[in-house]
């Protein structure tokens, strides 16, 4: 048997095609998950810190992956190198995520959580198989003419900018969706205000805030799982009254608390989604999710420190799939000085909770996002 490259070429071709197919389909799977089910929240956290907006970056990332796969299928002899480069980029991203201790790579959409180490093992195996198959000699020179492959790649690159969930949702779309639901007789109220706090005037709320917390309230008892005593029977949380399973989101939008600093509360992005006049214009706002461990811990700490002297606005960020069964936030400040709102459902909000903002005279003085414990 000859050991010459000419003799090896035909024998390696099936393995090379298989390796290229597996590697490219894996990339395509992740791209389609992000295109059809994801949002910029899936991007690694360090990408949110880059100077380019994640609104721009998200469809760009999807488009690159789709374009590389399409070109590789049409021109495998050249395209395999682009597939290999894409995997090298994946290794770099996963390495950063592992170093930062992130729990999910976000590669396969929100509903499929894979640890960066797990994804690195899968990607590494596919990359190794691709190289072992010697695609530079085991694949045909071309399937489609270069101009055709190039045009197809450009079209695939542009696709996320026009279809799927590559673009942000705006409040007018949510209003239309809610009006349709209302016409069908479905109550889709965006606010959660069981105590009526949001309907009170700022002056009335301030007067109530100066009163002593009611005996037995969560604000008057220590409530914590780390450093303080858990109350024996905490008062019902406002989220108890609004918790049914949250339906899948129709799109996404970005809420950026750190961009609020120095702005009037009526000029920030949040004002497009909720009536900020129903929140304190002097006090603290807290954005939380009911399934967020850091939110639970932060709200427990706030509850421990709350003496009723400061107005607090609690802003629930609903997530698709929220339900009474997966809710872990049960303790939060309560009383007349606490105002509750909920962002409209049907939207996935790209914001790392818990987040908070200090408001003075209707102007944001400071804001934080992704408070960790």
- Count the strands? 7
Shape: elongated
Distance between the termini: 65 Å
Please indicate the percent range of residues in DSSP E strands (runs of 2 or more). Answer: 5-15%
Give the uncertain stretches in residue-range form: 1-12, 181-202, 204-238
Largest β-sheet summary: 5 strands, mixed
**Radius of gyration (Å):** 26 Å
The strand order across the widest sheet is: 4-3-2-6-7
Helix percent reads: 40-55%
Determine the number of helices (DSSP H or I, runs of at least 4 residues): 10
Average pLDDT, to the nearest integer? 79
Q: State the secondary-structure class.
A: alpha/beta
Q: SSE string, helix = H, strand = E?
A: HHHHHHHHHEEHEEEEE
- Overall tally of structural domains: 2
Chart the SSEs and their pairings.
Blueprint: H1 5-37, H2 45-48, H3 54-74, H4 76-99, H5 116-132, H6 135-138, H7 146-158, H8 171-183, H9 202-209, E1 251-254, E2 283-288, H10 293-305, E3 312-316, E4 338-342, E5 347-350, E6 355-360, E7 363-369
Parallel strand pairs: 1-5, 2-3, 3-4
Antiparallel strand pairs: 2-6, 6-7
Provide the descriptors you would attach to this structure in a database record.
alpha/beta; 7 strands; single chain; 2 domains; 373 residues
Describe this entry's structure for a reader.
The protein is α/β, with parallel strands linked by helices and 373 residues long. The protein has 2 domains: 5-161, no CATH class; 188-369, no CATH class. 40% of the residues lie in helices and 10% in strands. It has 10 helices and 7 strands. A 5-stranded mixed beta sheet has the order 4-3-2-6-7, covered by helices on one side. The protein has a two-stranded parallel ribbon with strand order 1-5. A hairpin with a 2-residue loop joins strand 6 (355-360) and strand 7. The longest helix is centred in the first third of the chain and has 33 residues, at 5-37. The relative contact order is 0.13. Residues 1-12, 181-202 and 204-238 have low confidence and may be disordered.
